[in-house]
């Protein structure tokens, strides 16, 4: 019998050896930058060595904020833990992991996310392509009852559905499915199975655990790195990569197109790591984009902004739901951590829209109801469109401005607040 | 439940463990065999109900109708009564299929034809509030497969080829057997039922072949087909709703891009469906049940007839056994044979979907086959054993294979088009002068890079299939040194691991 399976057993051994190699090496340095960011952050947080007094959590835009090293006793160290597009559920889970991994408990959290991540609730729950839609934290019995009733209600006919199809690059997809594909790997790479188990309930828990189990085989988890590893090009790492990294921190060099991602995935990730380490978590992802694409995109968005119509009718506005922030505040309070919200500047023409102004008004009311938590504004919440590469992210000059103002205007207020609360304690 | 999801893996492991426990006792004890079959039946219902439990009512009705009809046929004293039972079965099955699959199509076509006629005579078109038709009927997964399978059983009983099955649960298992339930192979009762009625336990030989079938199936589905889809969707768009929302998108596509994409499209459809069929084959082998091989390296076919004996074998066997032979086959002269051939291709087109594009695809395939049989196929008298001239045989073999593949690709344009106007436009573009732009401004890769990318994806499979085709053995490497076996398993497994796309639906689920 064994002779029949000799070839198959050798093949199996190959995949076992591959798994051992993957587990013993930091193979994620060969991953695409998005996956690399998440893994770099995970490794940093799991190391338990983080010791910042203030941590920033936000999204791809707020990744452009630089941390801060305290210069004297009246200041505090700041580290930016923002990651691109993790979705609203991520923040509380991340904080939990941060605290449980043995890192120094921060004195304060600065929440710097975009409105979609703090003002529209948790959004749609995770989408399960094979078990139809699940509602948030729905128990198994509730789920089965709902499916049973749905079967009777729609029987042989299609259920009228809201148009959830979106198209991009000639493809089309269900937006829920796309969101899962977009966010899925980030959750699955950032958190262990036991962490995921604790984060979800009911059918969502079954769904996410089923998704997480295949990733226990790390050769599959890092299959992108294995694929990139097949090309010698991706292994190259020049000795002066740190010089390149520093060279790419001036706007002149970025705008001249001299700072495009390295053709070697490994070198690209080392440069990213170097910048993140030196700037305490900062990395402005738009500095990777080709200048001609930036120019094209900016022209397009400028044209769109000129034509943009701000709907004054409140009925057409997206409903405001601060649940994410509410939960974060509660979590911070439970752990005796101060909470601050930083309102990040956006394109001025969009910022002036009645819907946005109304949201700011609601935000202020929200913080009136939470007097122990603080809200911080920049000197000006609207930046000219020329300081953005698209309708979200700052360009190099926008990044410089936002950091100058953050350092000189926002942080002093934050430090002041912390000092006062510490004294009062 | 899709084979290419982790949920199926969990499902199968659970089913398999209990199946094997019953299997250990099934040879000695009747109750264990009974339990094994009931367990498989319950699992199959769960597998099917995973999509939408309500559709279990349809498959259950179909099972009941054919169970009763077959017994009715066997017990009937007169030919009229036998025919009545057969008619009841065919009417019920085709009625179900017609309602679920074709009703929307026929009602829309009827209203459209009515409007055209009235407009011609100076009348006005029907308004939505003046006409009532049932719309938005869901097409249950696998309905075309299981209705054909159950119908074949009743017809075989009527023809006296098999005895009617008295055990309802065994018969229900034949209809619902989960490895082949939703995408075939369409099995005949004479092949499948006796295997299901016996105690089932895998053999070591079976396990060895099953592991390869499953690996090959996943390779074809998640590596070749689903990666090819990324390129083909650029030219044919990702879905009908995208096309309907932006019909202008297709106007900028060049003929060269359509032609090249159609070459990849044949491989995509082949790998998508054959991959799924091989997973079904392997899964079933693990259960100790052999299914029919549905695809036999069709891309190496030298003529249309060979192509159709290698592509979706079980469906074509169904059409041959139940339509072509019923129409007389080749018994009544060449002309009637050609007519019969043409009819089954049109019916096959219609089986694939309720759309004129599928019917047109069937017509094209019918034309290829009829033309070949009428003018090019050597008659049996002409086939004379001659020493082969290797050079000539290489060139004729190569050119005929290339021609058949290209013809299949051209017909695939109709297969993939969302409606008749898209199909018309794409054929017009393919048969007009091509722009051949190196930098097409339509966001789609130029024809040559598109071809390169798709060729790179398919070349490992072409090599594997090439060996299997010329050696006439899909499992040829098991007869070679174990290092060769290991190399193939590692190579294919590694490609699936690093570049497989999991969770995508199967194209044939729509049929």
Features:
heterodimer, A: 425 residues, alpha/beta, Rossmann fold, 2 domains, five-stranded parallel β-sheet, two-stranded antiparallel sheet, 9 strands, globular, B: 511 residues, mainly alpha
Give a short synopsis of this structure.
By secondary structure, chain A is an alpha/beta fold.
Structure report:
The complex is a heterodimer of chains A (425) and B (511). Chain A has 425 residues and is α/β, with parallel strands linked by helices. Chain A folds into 2 domains: 268 residues, SGNH hydrolase (Rossmann fold), CATH 3.40.50.1110; 107 residues, no CATH class. In chain A, a hairpin with a 2-residue loop joins strand 4 and strand 5. The longest helix of chain A is centred in the last third of the chain and has 29 residues. The radius of gyration of chain A is 23 Å and the shape is globular. The N and C termini of chain A lie far apart (75 Å). The model of chain A has no long low-confidence stretch (mean pLDDT 85). With 511 residues, chain B is mainly alpha-helical. Chain B has 2 domains: 194 residues, no CATH class; 215 residues, no CATH class. Chain B is built from 18 helices and no strands. In chain B, helix 4 crosses helix 5, helix 8 packs antiparallel against helix 10 and helix 8 packs parallel to helix 18. Chains A and B meet through helix 1, helix 5, strand 5 and helix 10 of A and helix 1, helix 8, helix 9 and helix 18 of B.
């Amino acid at each position: 019998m064994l002779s029949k399976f000799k070839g198959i057993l050798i093949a199996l051994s190959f995949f076992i050896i591959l798994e051992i190699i993957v587990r013993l090496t930091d193979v994620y340095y060969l991953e695409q930058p998005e996956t690399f960011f998440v893994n770099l952050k995970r490794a940093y947080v799991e190391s338990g060595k983080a010791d910042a007094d203030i941590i920033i959590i936000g999204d791809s835009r707020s990744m452009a904020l630089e941390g801060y090293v305290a210069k004297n006793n009246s200041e505090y160290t700041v580290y930016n833990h923002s990651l691109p597009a993790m979705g609203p559920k991520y923040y509380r889970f991340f904080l939990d992991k941060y605290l449980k991994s043995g890192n120094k408990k921060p004195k304060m959290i600065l929440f710097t996310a975009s409105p979609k991540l703090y003002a529209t609730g948790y959004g749609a729950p995770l989408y399960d392509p094979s078990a139809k839609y699940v509602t948030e934290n729905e128990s198994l019995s509730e789920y089965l009852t709902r499916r049973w009733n749905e079967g009777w209600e729609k029987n042989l006919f299609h259920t009228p559905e809201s148009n959830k199809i979106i198209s991009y690059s000639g493809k089309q997809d269900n937006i829920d499915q796309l969101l899962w594909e977009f966010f899925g790997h980030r959750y699955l790479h950032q958190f262990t199975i036991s962490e995921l188990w604790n984060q979800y309930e009911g059918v969502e828990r079954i769904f996410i655990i089923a998704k997480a189990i295949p990733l226990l085989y790390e050769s599959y988890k890092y299959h992108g790195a294995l694929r990139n590893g097949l090309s010698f090009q991706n292994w190259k790492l020049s000795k002066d990569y740190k010089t390149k990294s520093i060279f790419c921190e001036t706007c002149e060099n970025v705008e001249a197109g001299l700072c495009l991602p390295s053709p070697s995935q490994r070198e690209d990730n080392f440069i990213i790591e170097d910048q993140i380490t030196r700037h305490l978590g900062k990395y402005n992802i738009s500095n990777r984009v080709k200048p001609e694409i930036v120019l094209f995109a900016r022209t397009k968005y400028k044209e769109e902004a000129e034509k943009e119509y701000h709907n004054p009718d409140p009925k057409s506005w997206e409903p405001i739901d601060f649940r994410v922030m509410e939960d974060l505040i509660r979590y911070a309070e439970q752990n005796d951590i101060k909470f601050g919200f930083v309102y990040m500047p956006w394109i001025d023409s969009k910022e002036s829209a009645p819907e946005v102004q109304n949201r700011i008004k609601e935000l202020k009311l929200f913080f009136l109801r939470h007097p122990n938590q603080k809200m911080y504004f920049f000197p000006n919440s609207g930046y000219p469109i020329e300081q953005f590469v698209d309708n979200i992210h700052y360009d190099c000059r926008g990044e410089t401005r936002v950091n100058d103002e953050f350092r000189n205007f926002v942080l002093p207020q934050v430090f002041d607040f912390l000092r006062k609360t510490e004294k009062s304690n | 439940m899709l084979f290419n999801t982790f949920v199926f893996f969990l499902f199968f492991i659970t089913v398999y463990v209990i199946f094997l426990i019953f299997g250990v006792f099934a040879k000695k004890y009747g109750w264990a065999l009974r339990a094994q079959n009931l367990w498989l039946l319950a699992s199959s219902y769960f597998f099917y109900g995973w999509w939408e439990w309500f559709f279990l009512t349809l498959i259950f009705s179909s099972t009941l109708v054919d169970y009763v009809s077959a017994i009715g046929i066997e017990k009937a004293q007169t030919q009229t009564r036998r025919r009545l039972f057969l008619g009841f079965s065919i009417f019920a099955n085709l009625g179900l299929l017609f309602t679920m699959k074709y009703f929307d199509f026929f009602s829309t076509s009827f209203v459209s034809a009515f409007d055209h006629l009235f407009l011609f005579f100076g009348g006005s078109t029907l308004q939505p509030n003046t006409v009532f038709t049932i719309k938005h009927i869901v097409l249950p997964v696998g309905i075309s497969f299981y209705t054909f399978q159950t119908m074949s059983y009743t017809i075989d009983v009527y023809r006296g080829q098999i005895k009617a099955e008295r055990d309802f649960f065994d018969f229900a298992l034949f209809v619902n057997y989960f490895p082949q339930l939703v995408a075939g192979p369409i099995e005949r009762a004479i092949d499948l039922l006796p295997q299901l009625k016996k105690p089932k336990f895998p053999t070591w030989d079976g396990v060895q072949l099953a592991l390869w079938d499953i690996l090959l199936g996943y390779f074809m589905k998640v590596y070749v087909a689903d990666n090819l889809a990324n390129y083909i969707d650029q030219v044919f768009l990702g879905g009908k709703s995208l096309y309907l929302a932006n019909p202008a998108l297709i106007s900028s596509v060049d003929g060269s891009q359509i032609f090249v994409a159609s070459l990849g499209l044949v491989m995509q459809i082949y790998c998508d469906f054959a991959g799924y069929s091989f997973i079904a084959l392997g899964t079933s082998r693990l259960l100790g049940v052999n299914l029919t091989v549905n695809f036999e390296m069709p891309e190496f076919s030298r003529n249309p007839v060979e192509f159709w004996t290698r592509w979706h074998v079980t469906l074509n066997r169904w059409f041959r056994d139940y339509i072509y032979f019923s129409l007389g086959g080749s018994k009544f002269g060449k002309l009637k044979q050609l007519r019969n051939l043409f009819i089954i291709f049109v019916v096959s087109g219609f089986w694939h979907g309720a759309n004129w594009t599928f019917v047109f695809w069937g017509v094209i395939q019918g034309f290829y086959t009829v033309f070949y049989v009428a003018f090019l196929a050597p008659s049996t008298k002409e086939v004379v054993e001659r020493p082969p001239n290797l050079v000539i045989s290489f060139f004729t073999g190569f050119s005929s294979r290339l021609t058949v593949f290209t013809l299949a690709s051209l017909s695939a344009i109709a297969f993939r088009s969302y409606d008749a106007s898209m199909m018309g436009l794409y054929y017009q573009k393919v048969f007009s002068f091509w722009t051949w732009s190196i930098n097409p401004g339509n966001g789609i890769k130029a024809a040559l890079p598109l071809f390169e990318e798709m060729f790179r994806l398919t070349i490992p499979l072409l090599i594997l299939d090439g060996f299997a085709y010329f050696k006439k053995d899909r499992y040829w490497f098991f007869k070679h040194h174990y290092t060769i076996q290991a190399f193939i398993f590692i190579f294919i497994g590694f490609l699936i691991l690093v570049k497989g796309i999991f969770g995508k639906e199967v194209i044939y689920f729509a049929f």
